[in-house]
Write a structure and sequence with these properties.
It is a single chain. This protein is an alpha+beta fold. The protein folds into 5 domains: 224 residues, FAD/NAD(P)-binding domain, CATH 3.50.50; 128 residues, D-Amino Acid Oxidase, Chain A, domain 2 (2-Layer Sandwich); 31 residues, no CATH class; 117 residues, Aminomethyltransferase beta-barrel domains (Alpha-Beta Plaits); 76 residues, Gyrase A, domain 2 (2-Layer Sandwich), CATH 3.30.1360. This is Dimethylglycine dehydrogenase.
């Protein structure tokens, strides 16, 4: 067996073989795959083999589309059959919320180039005649849906990889993975040790155990999953064409033709986690004992939806484990803190996503970044706070909601609350309605009186409407207060701190006592982060950014480390409050003896507020006069007491994230992972105004953004006023210009201050002119909208900067 190689992929399922193939496709031939048994062992061999494009995340949907289109290419390359059945599929909606979800998904598909269609119940009866359409409002038809042969497809990936120079070693058990001092790895197997630059964990059911060999915890858990194959059914084998797939969210089932009968699988509510304390190494080509009691209610529902099943015999029951992450998406990419160690795990929909996962990981490894934003499946989206005790209930919840409606404002309850600030109990007593970000409890809004402590999930305006309007009014007319806990915070220290920041950040690094806003870029000039940089002294800087991107950002900082610079993640070691509104200055002046009234916009200053040492920054995401006040969390309650007591003299109210996201629309402020993400460039989003093209530093991404600056961006982020009704833009709605889809929304909502529905979106740069009339599709209906350029509040910035 070969003892040195560039990449070792551990795991011979469909994902491992896809990664191996894509590495060779992108030019890395010195790669090998190790499989402890035969290829397809684990989950791959017993998978139902279905594939579809429908996914709530648009990038995941696009990658699923790539995966499906790849199969014919694999067949052409290898001469092997993947057993493709492109039969199409329809997802059913039996209530208005499910139908709204399908309308929203269809809208996204327009600009993605996916040819899906909303169909009526009558059309469903013709497309999928075994379906009982009683109570069905409509459906979404996708001609790309289908199924394949799991084994044949996996072996086609393997053959294509071998044709590209890859080696595959079966019956080779990995015992240890050990990192050397130089960052390379020794993979110890029962056939010898392999020295490699990169390790890819594609261990599937054993991914947790493989990760543990390197001291890594991956948040994964296997779930038992069951599907049934029927005997021959005349209504199926007498058809001229193969019956399409049917996804029935109400029945938590998927159905397709299998030979002369049907295959139906369930995501049942009384589900069961498997191998809670670890996957046995001797498990592989076994199935679990049948457990029809677990799916009894699901089967009864299926009999009503698909009456032919009630008289059909059962040919076989397939009951096996699949591995899930807490949110159901894969765990892909470089593992933070482990150079050279890559994850390709948690791909529960391997035949829908495996090709896209393989392509993205191969691009990441060979080129340093992917062609599209992969945050939804980045292994770094979970921090080091996550534990098996959190993972298991979240995986169970995700399994149970696999076919549930996914609402844009929904807050899932499992494994909460976990992480709380010192303000949690106080805010809870004030009527906080909670959300969660990166495991941390965050106030969405405050209910008062007899208002419910629960926001109704909806695609339309929710019962948070009045509370949000109330909080917005308080900020704009008096003063509002909220926590700054959901900022990621970093401390950069050392003699080389300024020079390092000049290289890492594209913008100007501020002088002492000042802050600046700056994008952080990828080598290809895409947005890697949206930061505030504060200069505390010449060797000490504080950075703030999105709280949920901590592991992502710390991984990037580590990949670009410098000897004379230290970067610490202090996100949970620093907390405090934001106060904002026309009376914010009066509140602050009254609670400190330090001079703060003369602070200019983007000044920073140390001050003692009450008894608490604080860092005060003159900036606010509300777009109003405001201050961010940071302190030690141990003193946060004391800081609250003094701010709140004085605030009562000025009409202070607490406000949450729903109000924050409405307030930012008044100034057309973008937000991370909406307007700003690795999918976009600074010139497209207006972030180029924060780039210092004159500074004497070869900052990361400089060549790319200078080239774009010279050529000009092809699209531009703009704002629209929308004549909406009872629903606002959430994101990815198509923008129609001259009766053609020419752009899409990045986010939006309702400006309670201006009492207008606002959308932010990307359109062709040459059409981005004030007054442009467009239509924006919201839940299947096209609404007139007008491009606006003047902010809805404080248009000249006099209050924010004054």
């Amino acid at each position: 067996m070969k003892t040195t190689t560039r990449v070792v992929v551990i795991g011979g399922g469909v994902v491992g073989c896809s990664v191996l193939y894509h590495l060779t496709k992108l030019g890395w031939s010195d790669v090998m795959l190790l499989e402890r048994s035969e290829l397809t062992s684990g989950s791959t061999w017993h998978a139902a083999g279905g594939f579809h494009t429908l996914n709530g995340d648009t990038n995941m949907a696009a990658l699923q589309g790539y995966t499906i289109r790849l199969y014919k290419e694999l067949e052409e390359i290898t001469g092997m059959s993947c057993g493709l059945h492109h039969v199409g599929g329809v997802t059913l909606a039996d209530n208005s919320d499910r139908f709204d979800m399908l309308l929203a998904e269809r809208a996204k598909h327009r600009y993605m180039g996916l040819d899906t269609h909303i169909v009526t119940p009558e059309e469903i009866a013709k497309i999928a005649p075994v379906t009982n359409i009683d109570g069905i409002l409509g459906g979404l038809y996708d001609p790309l849906d289908g199924h394949l042969d799991p084994s044949g497809t996996t072996h086609a990936y393997a053959k294509a990889a071998r044709m590209g120079g890859a080696l595959i070693e079966t019956h080779c058990m990995v015992r240890e993975t050990k990192q050397r001092a130089d960052g390379t790895w020794d993979v110890v197997t029962d056939k010898g040790t392999i020295h490699t630059e990169h390790v890819v964990n594609a261990g599937g059911l054993w991914a947790r155990e493989v990760a543990a060999m390197a001291g890594i915890y991956l948040p994964l858990h296997p779930m038992e999953h069951q599907y049934i194959v029927t005997d021959d059914i005349p209504e199926i084998y007498n058809r001229d064409a193969e019956h399409p797939h049917v996804m029935d969210p109400a029945g938590e089932s998927y159905l397709r033709q299998e030979g002369r009968g049907l295959c139906i699988g369930f995501y049942e509510q009384p589900c069961k986690p498997w191998a809670v304390d670890g996957t046995p190494w001797d498990f592989g080509h076994e199935l679990l004992p049948d457990n029809l009691d677990k799916i009894e209610a699901s089967i009864e529902f299926a009999y009503r939806r698909f009456p032919v099943l009630e008289t059909a015999g059962v040919k076989s029951v397939i009951h096996g484990p699949f591995t899930f992450a807490p949110d159901g998406n894969p765990l892909v990419g470089p593992v933070p803190g482990m150079p050279g160690y890559w994850s390709a795990c948690g791909v529960m929909a391997g035949f829908s996503q495996g090709g896209g996962v393989g392509l993205m990981l191969a691009q990441w490894m060979t080129e340093g970044e992917c062609e599209r934003d992969v945050t939804a499946m980045d292994v770094a989206r979970f921090g080091d706070w996550i534990t098996p005790g959190y993972t298991r209930p979240k995986v169970i919840e995700n399994y149970q909601k696999r076919f549930s409606v996914s609402y844009p404002n929904e807050e899932l309850p499992a494994a909460r609350p976990l992480r709380q600030t010192p303000m949690y109990d106080l805010f809870d007593g004030m009527g906080a309605v909670w959300g969660a970000q990166y495991g941390l409890e965050v106030v969405n809004y405050f209910a008062i009186g007899d208002e419910p402590r629960y926001e109704t999930p909806s695609f339309r305006r929710s019962n948070a409407w009045e509370a949000t309007a109330r909080e917005v009014k308080a900020v704009r007319e008096a003063v509002g207060i909220n926590e700054v806990h959901n900022f990621g915070k970093y401390l950069v220290t050392g003699k080389g701190a300024r020079a390092w920041l000049d290289r890492i950040m594209a913008g100007r690094i501020p002088k002492l006592g000042r802050l600046s806003l700056t994008p952080m870029l990828s080598p290809k000039g895409r947005l890697w982060g949206d930061f505030t940089v504060s200069c505390l002294n010449e060797e000490t800087f504080q950075l703030t950014a999105s709280y949920g991107a901590q592991a992502f950002h710390m991984r990037w900082f580590a990949m670009n480390e410098a000897e004379d610079v230290r970067v610490e993640n202090i996100s949970d070691r620093l907390n405090g409050f934001q106060i904002a509104g026309p009376k914010a200055r009066a509140v602050l002046r009254a609670v400190t003896r330090d001079r703060v009234e003369d602070m200019k916009f983007m000044d920073i200053r140390h001050a003692t507020i009450g008894m608490v040492d604080c860092l005060v920054q003159r900036v606010s995401y509300t777009g109003d006069l405001g201050y961010e006040i940071f302190c030690d969390p141990m003193a946060q309650r004391a800081l609250w007491d003094v701010l709140w007591a004085e605030g009562q003299n000025h009409g202070m109210r607490p406000f949450g994230m729903r109000a924050m996201m409405s307030l930012r629309l008044d100034r057309f402020f973008g937000s991370w992972m909406n307007e700003f993400s690795p999918d976009y460039t600074p010139a497209e989003t207006g972030m180029d105004r924060f780039i210092s093209f004159t500074k004497n530093s070869d900052f990361i991404g400089r060549a790319a953004v200078e080239a774009e600056r010279h050529a000009g961006a092809k699209r531009k982020l703009v704002a629209f006023e929308v004549n909406a009704e009872d629903a606002d833009v959430n994101g990815y709605e198509p923008i129609w210009i001259d009766d053609a889809v020419r752009g899409f929304c990045t986010s939006g909502g309702y400006s309670h201050h201006a009492r207008k529905s606002i959308a932010l979106g990307l359109i062709p740069a040459e059409q981005a002119k004030a007054g442009l009339a467009v239509e924006i599709e919201i839940l299947g209906k096209r609404y007139p909208a007008k491009l606006i350029t003047e902010p809805l509040f404080d248009a000249d910035g006099a209050r924010m900067r004054g």
